Fold this sequence. Notes:
By secondary structure, the protein is α/β, with parallel strands linked by helices. Helix content is 50%, strand content 14%.
Amino acid sequence: MKKLLFLGDSVTDAGRDFENDRELGHGYVKMIAEQLGKEDVTVINRGVSANRVADLHRRIEADALSLAPDVVTIMIGINDTWFSFSRWEDTSVTAFKEVYRVILSRIKEETNAELVLMEPFVLPYPEDRKEWRGDLDPKIGAVRELAAEFGATLIPLDGLMNALAIKHGPTYLAEDGVHPTKAGHERIASIWLEFTK
């Protein structure tokens, strides 16, 4: 039985029930599990709303290492950008990358898991989201560099979601530029399946 673990923030969390380990929320993780239903896999969602890379680091033991996963998918970083605008909490790209590197090093050293890194993304709606690019783009660059460094599968979600936003309009995928609609989650699930097959 292959164990697939998903780590991240509210995009991954998607309203999951923290009291029930088997409950996957209503987002892309659940949709992936449904697609893989006939395969011999266990899907685990450990997304936590509002998490930044430092929060993920703090819970890495309980929510990743202790579960002995076979594949770990991580999507983290949008809150590191968001909070720098909403709470004036600056997260430098250097700090972001170093903490992310520690997380990946521990997973590599303490499990046999394959790594899948999904870029954090933001769509250009509302208008102020466009200002986030200057902060988010270097963090996306860091995720790409870490994927290369650790031999991880990289899912270039930011570019793919923005391309879809040009085609369908950003609110079709995420009404606030960040939190996916049902259609947005469906696209993320299909992108994940495409890149990991």
